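Lay summary. Proteins are chains of building blocks that fold into shapes, and those shapes determine what they do. In this project we predict the shape from the chain. Here is one chain we studied, written as its sequence of building blocks.
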Amino acid sequence: MKHLISLHETSTQEVEQILTLAAKLKAETKAGISHPLLKGKTLGMIFTKSSTRTRVSFEVGMYQLGGYPLFLSSNDIQLGRGETIYDTANVLSRYLDGIMIRTFAHSDVTDLAKYGTIPIINGLTDLLHPCQALADLLTIQEHKGKFKGLKLAYIGDGNNVAHSLLYACAKVGMDMSVATPAGYECNAEIVENAKADAKISGSNIVITNDPVEAIKDADVVYSDTWVSMGQEAEKEARVKIFLPYQIDKKLFAKAKDDAIFMHCLPAYRGFEVTEDVIDSAQSVIFDEAENRLHAQKAVMAILMA
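And here is the predicted shape, written in a compact code that computers can read:
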């Protein structure tokens, strides 16, 4: 594994390796055992999209691994303001040991990997969010103890999180159903890729516009914001369209009795999910948020050590 760009391009064995190492690093952190696997290494963190969890988890993770994180905002570098990605990738490859980039265009990530000579980690693009999906898998593994035989129901916008969950579930053999409003479905190519991976792992993927169909007998229920960064002008229209996809107590009750609720955060209570679901005992959103740290540490250690 040279980069983490898409879980579709990551083998099942590599996903398992990441999760195993993440669990080990988490246990060692809780026990106060240091693991300076990246001592003397520097990670450049490029942000053209702001974030709370991504920045803090990567910075803290890099410190815990003994390395140095370097925050680079869109105002700090010339990327997108005249300098080509080719030049940026070649220059930063001479200074850094790895790059994490959180940006809008997925091509920014693939181009950095194409032209640079160091590992590139996709911290989020408008198309994919593999780091979040790895943290989600780690959380499900902790709470359910397995993947095969489980069903994850994603209800809401067919966005980057939904895309990466499709890839993640297909890789580990977990069934997944996705319910979105008409016109807001997942990217057709990603669905096709995920279904191809699911055939290999033996899992099943269902794409529907019916949230009741999707959530039936689910072990994991997942939601995300209806209005992603850059879509603020569409908020009023989106709220009206997505309201039937709100996960409230009535809809959540159609999942299995022991189902867990997940959300990548930030969450907007009263929109995609009601307070009595997201703040219930079945919600694992803060375990999920914490696991961004441990999953990403595993990715950095594997790519950069």
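What the prediction tells us: The CA atoms of residues 93 and 117 lie 6 Å apart.
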